[in-house]
Each structure stands twice: as C-alpha cells, then as structure tokens.
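Annex B, item 7. Sequence and structure tokens for protein A, then protein B.
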Amino acid sequence: QVQLVESGGGLVQAGGSLRLSCAASGSVYLINAMGWYRQAPGKQREMVATVTSGGSRNYADSVKGRFTISRDNAKNTVYLQMDSLKPEDTAVYYCNAANQVVNYWGQGTQVTVSS
C-alpha cells in the first residue's frame, strides 16, 4: 500500500501563486508516475500534471505555461507550483501515485482562487 499526504492548498487571489506538496510513504517502490488531478464542483476529475520516475512530464492544456510539476525521488515527494492562478483553477486537488496496475489517491486539498 501507498499513502499520500497533500499540503499547500488555500485561498489566493487571481494572479497569485500556490505550491502543493504530496509526500508518499509505504510501499513507494510500487510507484512509477506521480501527479495531480483536480475536481471542481459538478465536474469530473481531470488530470492537471503528471511526472514519471524518469522525469517525463505531461500537462493539461489549460495549465501549460502556468503550472510546473516536479518530483524529488529521494523524498518520494511531488510538487505542483501554480502561478498566474485563475478563478477557473478553483477545485479540490488530488495527488496521485500510479503504476500499470493500480492508482493511489490522496485525500485532496482545496484550492480557491478569488477574482
């Protein structure tokens, strides 16, 4: 099993920045990719950004150029630097750790961007 603990959400004005962190513990050897997903009220959960153990990154078109995902393999931690935040970025952000067989999820952290 893998446990994920997120931190760093909060309330910020449009144009501001936040940094999310997610620390993995437990059977971390099971993890290949880590990433962030988000779910806004009334909407489906969507991928925001992912990074593999080898460093390959993937971003949703809506956040390209504004968000940066990074990963510290020694600390089993993934980060999401969010700049130029927009009200439409408001959502619960979930940390994800995955391999080819299973997905693990954190409990989520609220990000609210006021206009």
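Protein B:
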Amino acid sequence: QVQLVESGGGLVQAGGSLRLSCQASLTIFSTYTMGWYRQAPGKQRELVANIASGGNTNYRDSVKGRFTISRDNAKNSVYLQMNSLKPEDTAVYYCQAHWYNYDYWGQGTQVFVSS
C-alpha cells in the first residue's frame, strides 16, 4: 500500500520559514511528478508547487520567489522550503504523487502563520 507521510508543519510568525518533508513508499519514486498542495478553511485545494521526474519545477504565482520545491530520489522524498511566510499561507499542506492515472495523497500537515 502506497503511503505518503508529510512532516514539518507548525506555527510560525509572519516572515518566518518552515521546511516541509514528504516521504513516499513508492517503488519507482523517481518517475513520479511530486507536488505540494494546500487547502485553507473554506477554500478549494490548490497547487502550490510541483517537480517533475526530470527536475522541472512549477509554482503558483503567489509563492514564487519565496518557496522552493526539491526532491531526493535516493530517499523517496520531496521537500518544500517556505520562506517569508505570510498569514495567507496558512493551510493544510498535502503531498501528492502523480504518474499517468495514478494519484496518491498524504494526510496533510498544518501550517499556521501568525501576523
């Protein structure tokens, strides 16, 4: 059974930093596009950033220049470095693994940014 386990969330003041980690129990992790999504209360889940198997990255406009996604295929892990955090970044952050018709999700980790 595939499992994605996120960690690294928490409470931080505006302007601070957090690093989220996601470890996946995937046998061919390197072939998956890995993504970070977030969902704030009362809002739809939205893509924050993703990284393809070849390393190409994609970010939503509101996090460009502040967040960095990276992956370590040897550790079956993907990371999200979040700097200059803002209150509007408050959400539950989810890790996703995508490959063709396969999508797997983690349970989520809460990020709360106080003003």
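Comment on protein B: Residues 38 and 44 are 8 Å apart (CA to CA).
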